[in-house]
Amino acid sequence: MTTLILTVAGADRPGLVAAVADVVDAHGGNWENSSLAELAGTFAGVIEVSVPTDRAGDLETALRAIQGQGLLTLSVLTGTRGVAEEDEERLLVMQVLGNDHPGIVREVSAVLNAHALSIEELATETRDAAMAGGRLFEASVIAKVPPTVDLDALRADLERLATEIQVDITLG
Q: Which of 6, 16, 144, 172 shows its CA 20 to 30 Å from the CA of 117?
């Protein structure tokens, strides 16, 4: 089996997911994992598909053919899985909440990178602050923590950062 990673983006309209799913199914592929969302009128996402190795090329060709059906972009990459590596790593779950301002994602990701963490999932949202006015920024992060990471040093750096950029960072 071959793992393909599809990235899709286009003007949001009914049927985009169905079009991709139909092509995957028609070529013996299996839709395994995905993260898809509508953002500001654009539909975008990442999809992990497994397909028999001998059918991967045909699936890629067929997927590229649907670009004219409303998808502005569609990229196909071959995925890799490092099972042995994954067994050694732990996951860190983190929530970030504070008044919205530029640079929050940059600052948080810089601290994670400085400690060699790899972001598995990142979901962000801004919304109106109900009582205080203004905008709130909220992020949910899941990151891989290599066994060599000093968790106390990571926690201290995140606490320092939270104070500097005036957000709450909660580790779960």
A: 6
Q: How far is CA 112 from CA 34, 39, 68, 103, 107, in A?
A: 24, 26, 39, 14, 9
pLDDT of residue 65 exceeding 80, the answer is: yes
Provide the domain limits for residue 60.
2-78
Q: How many domains does the chain have?
A: 2
Show which of 29, 45, 78 is a domain's final residue. Answer: 78
Pick from 108, 116, 71: which is nearest to 90 by CA? 116
DSSP bridge partners of 8 = 45, 74
The Cα–Cα gap between 144 and 77 comes to 22
Prediction pTM value: 0.74
Structure tokens at 54: 């001998």
DSSP states of 17-47: HHHHHHHHHHTT-EEEEEEEEEETTEEEEEE
**Residue 156 to residues 112, 116, 151: CA-CA distances in angstroms?**
12, 15, 9
